[in-house]
Design brief:
This protein is mostly helical. 57% of the residues lie in helices and 6% in strands. It has two domains: 72 residues, Glutaredoxin, CATH 3.40.30; 129 residues, Up-down Bundle (Glutathione S-transferase Yfyf (Class Pi), Chain A, domain 2). Helix 4 runs antiparallel to helix 5. The chain is globular and about 45 Å long. It binds glutathione (GSH).
């Protein structure tokens, strides 16, 4: 199997965390042609997005589909609980991250530079991001991990966006991990030292530094 990757992509970072966690024999490669919309990459994956995974039996996209395949296909402790309700809670947390938290955060990327900032848009999106972080805090059932005693796909998902939250939200006038979100704050403080997370976030942070200079 082969993961088409960009270190700057948080959704690809989510997949790399799962791959490192499972020690999965998956080759991690840049997109062919040097850009997401190159003819070479569009021929591989017509959506022209990362991550995508060459399974050996066709290419699939969507980080959640990829991490579930990584989890199911490789040895090592499962990143999904066996109990159906607990499993649904992990997938719910993944969805809160992928579908609800990430898009309004992404909408502010073009506004990090104060010279290019629309303050009204930032106010609006920051309020949405804060509401979603509060929802994640409320949904966190676990200690020390997001969904319980075991590291799960939910941790892969939210940790992948941790570097963006930690770097960008303060610049935009907020705080993603304040005392008023004690579970999230404690989680973020400790999850970064897990080897799989640390490796993927080191790559992600380096790419953020190169792109955003921070
Ligand atoms: N829902 C997708 C989102 C992937 C995504 O948004 N990838 C970004 C990079 S982080 C991308 O490829 N953007 C290029 C584009 O939207 O054309 C997933 O979970 O994998």
């Amino acid at each position: 199997m082969k993961l088409y990757n960009m270190d700057l992509s948080n959704f690809a970072t989510k997949c790399r965390i799962a791959i490192y966690e499972k020690n999965a024999a998956i080759e991690i490669v840049p997109v062919p042609g040097g850009s997401l919309k190159s003819p070479e990459y569009l021929a591989v994956y017509p959506l022209g997005m990362v991550p995508s995974l060459d399974t050996g039996h066709g290419v699939i996209g969507e980080s959640q589909a990829i991490v579930e395949l990584v989890n199911d296909n490789f040895d090592g402790p499962s990143l999904l609980p066996a109990d159906p309700v607990d499993k649904a809670k992990v997938r719910f947390l993944c969805g809160l991250h992928d579908t609800h938290l990430e898009p309004p955060l992404r909408a502010m990327f073009g506004h990090i530079n104060p010279d290019k900032r629309d303050p009204d848009l930032v106010d609006e999106k920051l309020a949405v991001v804060n509401a979603k972080l509060d929802a994640i805090e409320a949904a966190m059932s676990g200690d020390p991990f997001l969904a319980g005693a075991d590291f799960s796909l939910a941790d892969c998902a939210l940790a992948s966006t941790g570097s963006f939250l930690e770097k960008f939200i303060p610049v935009l006038g907020g705080d993603a991990f304040p005392d008023s979100r004690p579970k999230l704050k404690a989680w973020w403080a400790q999850v970064q030292s897990r080897p799989s997370v640390n490796k993927a976030l080191t790559e992600h942070r380096e790419a953020i530094k190169q792109t955003f200079g921070m």
